Amino acid sequence: MWVNSQQFHKNKMHLIKLFPLSFVLLFLFASSYKIQAQNKSFTVVIDPGHGGKDTGTEGTKRYKDKNEKDIVLAVALKVEKLMQTEMPNTKVILTRKKDVFIELKKRGEIANKANADLFISIHANAANYKAKGSETYVLGVHRNKTNLAVAKRENDVILLEEDYEKHYSYNPHSPASIISLTLMQEDYLDQSIRMATIVEKSFVETGKRSSRGVKQAGFVVLHQTYMPSILIEIGFLSNNKEEDFLRKKNGQEKIAASIVSGIKKYKKELDKNSITNDIITKENSIFKGVAFKVQIASSSNKVTTKSYNFKGLRNIERVKVGKHYKYYLGNTSDYNLIKDLQEQAVSKGYKSAFIVAFKGQERISVSKLLKSTSQ
Ligand SMILES: [Zn+2]
Question: What is the DSSP string of 284-314?
Answer without folding.
Answer: G-B-TT-EEEEEEEEESS-----GGGTTT--
